[in-house]
Write a structure and sequence with these properties.
single chain; Fructose-1,6-Bisphosphatase, Chain A, domain 1; 6-stranded antiparallel β-sheet; 3-stranded antiparallel β-sheet; 26% strand
């Protein structure tokens, strides 16, 4: 039995090495290309990286606007919480009326019973005055002296972005009458009703 086996060229040039096989029908040697290993080419990887970079450039501004929108909603909810705490404070301590201090609305429950200086009505993150990219203040308290005791009869609560355009776009204001108004420039000149 005379069987011919494939022979390989000993020298490989700048091009790929070719294997020689014998065609059984003709008996002639024919070149056979060696298969390259499977994988991605450099060009394919660069194209994928370019597509990922384009998608990131599209997504980054969207993430920023979502963050500002979440901060806005948090600021509005925080103002509602401060208003509710002020109302409860004035009912719990009628001789004091409203408080002109966020710290007086807070307090640690493990420190003892609530008091006019630590009513334990708000969480500590809000009583610090900084929450979700906004700065909160209570001001413009109108005092009336009754039986030698000062009683606050009104207040104004404001929430302004820590960095306008980055943490928020609008400022918000409210008072003891209730409706929240906004300042589109991020300040405390609130004239537009919040929708």
């Amino acid at each position: 039995m005379n069987r011919k086996f494939p022979t390989f060229l000993a020298l490989c040039g700048a091009q790929s090495c070719d294997a020689q096989t014998v065609n059984p029908a003709t008996g002639n040697e024919e070149p056979q290309r060696r298969r390259l290993p499977n994988g991605f080419t450099l060009m394919e990887l660069l194209i994928v990286m370019a597509i990922i970079a384009i998608l990131m450039l599209i997504a980054i501004p969207t993430v920023g606007s979502l963050k500002r929108s979440a901060n806005r909603l948090s600021a509005l909810q925080s103002i509602h919480a401060i208003q509710a705490a002020e109302m409860q404070y004035s009912q719990t301590y009628p001789s004091n009326g409203y408080t002109c201090s966020l710290q007086a609305l807070g307090g640690d429950s493990s420190a003892g019973a609530p008091s006019p200086t630590a009513a334990q009505l708000l969480q500590s993150d809000l009583t610090s005055g900084f929450k979700s990219g906004y700065v909160f203040t209570v001001s413009n308290c109108q005092k009336v002296t009754v039986n030698g005791t000062d009683r606050n009869t009104s207040y104004t609560v404001t929430a302004v972005p820590q960095t306008v355009g980055k943490t928020g776009n609008e400022g918000f204001c409210s008072d003891d009458n209730g409706p929240i108004k906004s300042d589109p420039t991020g300040g405390t000149n609130c004239t537009q009703p919040v929708q």
